[in-house]
Amino acid sequence: MNIQLYKALWGMEGSYRDQLTRAAQAGYAGIEAPLPPRDLEREFKNLLVELQLHYIAQVVTSVPHQETFAEQVRRAADFDPKLIVSHSARDGMKIEDQLRFFEAALKIEQEVGSLSAMKPTDRGRCSRHG
User: Fold this and answer.
1) Is the CB of residue 101 less than 8 Å from the CB of residue 93?
2) pLDDT tens-digit readout, 11-51
3) Is residue 45 a contact partner of residue 37, using CB atoms and an 8 Å limit?
């Protein structure tokens, strides 16, 4: 069994270089974090390579949920993440809308390849999915 530990960047301060360097120096295999701002994408990708860190990408949908999910997952795929974690849709949505969302999400996941997109069901996000 190969256990890899990832450092979440939640609450960490400093530049991406500071945060990722601290994670690498502490022996983490990678980091978990939201997508970087577009103007810092190149720096973020370069740091992952330089510091030999894997990446778990976080995406958070907003209205319109299907479209924001698709855009963010496609963008996340450009970072070659080990996994994509998505806080998706809303638990107040009608069940039919939730089902449509998850059908569309599965299509996007298939489009981008073998990435697994996990969808936590806490924090007011959809809780009725398989």
Assistant:
1) yes
2) 999 999 999 999 999 999 999 999 999 999 999 999 999 99
3) no
State the Cα–Cα distance between residues 59 and 37, nearest whole angstrom.
Answer: 12
pLDDT digits (tens, 9 = 90+) for 42-83: 999 999 999 999 999 999 889 999 999 999 999 999 999 999
Q: Burial, 3: exposed, middle or buried (Cβ in 10 Å; 0-12, 13-18, 19+)?
A: exposed
